[in-house]
Design brief:
Shape: globular
Structural class: mainly alpha
Strand content: under 5%
Number of strands: 0
Radius of gyration: 19 Å
Oligomer: single chain
Number of helices: 10
């Protein structure tokens, strides 16, 4: 009974967190709206893999090192900030290159402007998206600190700590997958309009700025 109550309580908390627009939302919408379905689901699975790893490591007590070691936290924080800024600038450069008429994206060398046949373009697939989503999640130490602060509060004293922690994390992952399904469907519904070069340039610029902003915020935050 206690575990059931804990599951529902945790589901409410992380559900509100999941629905809050952020970096994950921006990446999923942008990738899916460009027509890269496999890559979009790769991003989704990568993000949720990261969430599962954070939750599992927290349940095992490993991520407590983030709060105990300032050096470890700072290394991870700066690595994450650098990765986000690099990825955001890559999006901005990619769209600037496309606008310049060279027909290729300068970001990661895999995305290119292809008009009506964009789904047939040689973009990165599931593995590429998974890698991007995973790195975005794992290089954000705030996710680990969130789990260190929140997860133990929802684990009943009578429940096995590790198993209960993983079960609670599974709830977070499930909610993330369901919300991602909504985001992908929404982006694909607008895909016809977003095929237009002007709309795609605007979307990549906005997403690039958002990603860079998250990186800068992570770098300057205490």
């Amino acid at each position: 009974m206690e575990m059931t109550t804990a599951l529902w309580s945790f589901a409410l908390v992380v559900g509100l967190l999941t629905l809050t627009p952020g970096l994950d939302t921006a990446l999923i919408l942008r990738t899916s709206a460009l027509g890269h379905r496999r890559q979009a689901w790769g991003v989704v699975l990568g993000i949720q893999t990261g969430t599962l790893l954070w939750g599992t490591l927290t349940s095992a007590g490993v991520t407590a090192l983030l709060t105990a070691s300032k050096v470890g936290y700072e290394v991870l924080r700066w690595a994450g900030a650098a990765y986000l800024v690099w990825m955001g600038i890559g999006m901005l450069r990619a769209r600037a290159g496309a606008a310049g008429g060279d027909g290729t994206a300068a970001g990661d060398g895999r995305e290119q402007e292809s008009g009506p046949d964009e789904e047939k373009a040689p973009v990165g697939g599931l593995a590429s998206g998974w890698r991007r989503g995973l790195l975005t999640n794992l290089l954000n130490p705030k996710v680990g600190v969130f789990y260190v602060a929140m997860l133990p509060q929802f684990i009943p004293a009578s429940a096995p700590h590790f198993a209960a922690g993983v079960a609670l994390t599974g709830v977070h992952v499930l909610e993330g997958l369901l919300w991602s399904l909504v985001l992908v469907a929404f982006a694909r519904a607008l895909r016809g309009w977003l095929r237009r070069p002007v709309a795609r340039r605007a979307m990549d610029r906005v997403t690039g700025v958002v990603v860079v902003g998250f990186g800068v915020k992570l770098a300057v935050s205490d």
